[in-house]
């Protein structure tokens, strides 16, 4: 950590000095609201595609995003490492180290996205869709969609990076404001591009990807301009070194790669679950129900929980950086109470009004409805456990323990659900309810193991160090 520290205006010292519950809520509510509103664009996509394309379009978006997340989590893993470092340095009031860390994360993300994600994703898209056992009509709708999101992913990556950086530094409101703008722009573009308007033709499923790419790219440009304007708690300047700093990058990957592998494990499990769903008798209807029920409606719980996860990570990390680990330990407990309350409300809606919820996506009739209603009943229970699991994962990752969530995910998201589905498929034959039960049991296991590991408190002894900023070479004397 740099020994030359200066107070940077904008760091919120109430996170490490004031009421802990207020600190968690102050960071959580903007992120939760941003996630809910941002998730509306996914609901709009699915609803419009469901009405204008059909359930094959719904399945195409769900399958494509599952595959996209499987690949992108490796690139995005550096954002977790960035969050660990930024929160720790912000807690220690080291503004220079915060700025250095965010710039190196940005530089690394751009190189990986442009050099790896775009070309590999474009050419590997047909194979990836075959890997998830998508039905032929689903693959036909999904190919253009997935290629667009891969090639134009840089805007989304910059948006995610700045969300994580500002939240870890204590500013959750700026990402909320820009997220609202991006969501509104995305919805407008999707309404135009999915169905067509005037001389603009209907692009169907591909139009949803086009709208997302344009909106996220525009907001990415705005974020970069704000960074150089000096108006944010994180800032870039012409005087800082623009060259790669391998000491910082090494720390980014030291903390980030376990989270990246965790994301790969979890999304690989999702891909394998899609393969099992694709083997069911009514595979297209089941994949559509999964895309809507698990990816969109269940997000009413996970949006909130991910917001609480980020808030817990920031509060725990900053307090550990400030030398107050007891506040880090209590942060997860405070967040869990909020998460469980939300899971109860949303879970009740899944039980009471499933037809009305599924009708938004044109899945309120026939086999697709019956499968979707059944899935929502299981998810009503699963919501309690996934909320706790995410919040305590945030506590672990925010304090620098990014390896434990990886091991926990391998057990809870792969061994248990995939093992159960394999057992049933080799035995009496796999049914849709077997897959839904496997998902619930995986979330139960993940919640239990995450709480146990966090309470062991071994994260208290994790240190970070990026060293002093390199001194630029002296100018040559004439």
Q: Major beta sheet, specifics? A: none
The total count of helices amounts to 16
Which bin fits the share of residues in helices? over 70%
The domain tally reads 1
Helix/strand order: HHHHHHHHHHHHHHHH
Q: How many strands appear in the DSSP assignment?
A: 0
Global shape: globular
**What is the strand content?**
under 5%
Report the structural category. Answer: mainly alpha
Low-confidence regions: 1-9, 474-478
Radius of gyration: 22 Å
Mean pLDDT: 86
Oligomer: single chain
Report how far the terminal alpha carbons are from each other.
36 Å
Question: How would you characterize this protein structure?
Answer:
This protein is mainly α. The protein has one domain. 79% of the residues lie in helices and 0% in strands. The protein is built from 16 helices and no strands. It has helices spanning 14-17, 20-52, 55-91, 95-131, 136-151, 154-168, 173-195, 205-229, 246-278, 283-297, 299-321, 325-352, 354-359, 366-398, 403-426, 432-456. Helix 3 (55-91) packs antiparallel against helix 9 (246-278) and helix 12 packs antiparallel against helix 14. The longest helix has 37 residues, at 55-91. It is globular. The two termini are 36 Å apart. The relative contact order is 0.14.
Q: Short description, anyone?
A:
With about 475 residues, the protein is an all-alpha fold. The chain is about 80% helix and about 0% strand.
SSE layout and pairing:
Blueprint: H1 14-17, H2 20-52, H3 55-91, H4 95-131, H5 136-151, H6 154-168, H7 173-195, H8 205-229, H9 246-278, H10 283-297, H11 299-321, H12 325-352, H13 354-359, H14 366-398, H15 403-426, H16 432-456
């Amino acid at each position: 950590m740099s020994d030359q520290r200066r107070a940077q205006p904008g760091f919120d010292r109430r996170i490490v000095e004031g009421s802990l519950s207020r600190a968690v809520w102050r960071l959580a509510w903007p992120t939760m609201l941003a996630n809910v509103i941002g998730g509306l664009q996914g609901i709009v996509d699915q609803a419009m595609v469901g009405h204008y394309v059909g359930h094959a379009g719904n399945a195409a978006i769900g399958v494509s995003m599952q595959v996209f997340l499987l690949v992108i989590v490796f690139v995005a893993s550096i954002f977790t490492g960035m969050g660990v470092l930024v929160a720790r340095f912000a807690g220690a009031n080291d503004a220079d180290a915060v700025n250095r860390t965010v710039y190196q994360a940005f530089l690394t993300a751009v190189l990986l996205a442009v050099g790896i994600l775009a070309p590999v994703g474009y050419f590997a898209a047909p194979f990836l869709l075959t890997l998830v056992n998508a039905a032929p009509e689903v693959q036909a709708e999904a190919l253009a969609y997935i290629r667009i999101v891969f090639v134009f992913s840089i805007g989304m990556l910059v948006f995610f990076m700045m969300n994580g950086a500002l939240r870890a530094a204590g500013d959750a409101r700026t990402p909320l404001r820009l997220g609202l703008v991006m969501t509104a722009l995305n919805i407008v573009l999707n309404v135009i591009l999915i169905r067509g308007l005037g001389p603009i033709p209907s692009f169907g499923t591909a139009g949803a990807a086009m709208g997302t790419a344009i909106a996220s790219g525009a907001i990415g440009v705005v974020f970069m301009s704000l960074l150089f304007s000096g108006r944010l708690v994180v800032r870039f300047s012409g005087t800082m070194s623009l060259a790669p700093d391998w000491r910082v990058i090494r720390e980014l990957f030291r903390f980030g790669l376990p989270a990246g592998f965790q994301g790969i494990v979890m999304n690989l499990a999702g891909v394998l679950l899609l393969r099992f769903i694709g083997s069911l008798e009514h595979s297209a209807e089941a994949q559509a129900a999964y895309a809507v029920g698990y990816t969109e409606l269940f997000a009413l719980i996970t949006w909130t929980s991910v917001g609480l996860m980020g808030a817990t990570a920031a509060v725990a990390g900053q307090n550990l950086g400030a030398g107050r680990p007891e506040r880090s330990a209590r942060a997860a407990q405070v967040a869990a109470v909020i998460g469980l309350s939300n899971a109860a409300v949303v879970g009740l809606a899944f039980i009471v009004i499933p037809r009305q919820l599924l009708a938004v996506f044109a899945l309120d009739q026939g086999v697709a409805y019956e499968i979707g209603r059944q899935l929502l009943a299981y998810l009503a229970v699963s919501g309690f456990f996934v909320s706790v699991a995410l919040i305590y994962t945030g506590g672990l990752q925010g304090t620098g323990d990014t390896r434990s969530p990886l091991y926990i995910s391998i057990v809870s998201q792969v061994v248990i659900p995939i093992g159960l589905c394999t057992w049933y498929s080799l035995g009496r034959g796999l049914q849709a309810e077997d897959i839904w039960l496997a998902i619930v049991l995986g979330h139960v296991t993940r919640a239990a193991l995450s709480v146990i590991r966090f309470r062991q408190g071994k994260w208290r002894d994790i240190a970070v160090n990026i060293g002093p900023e390199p001194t630029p070479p002296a100018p040559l004397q004439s």
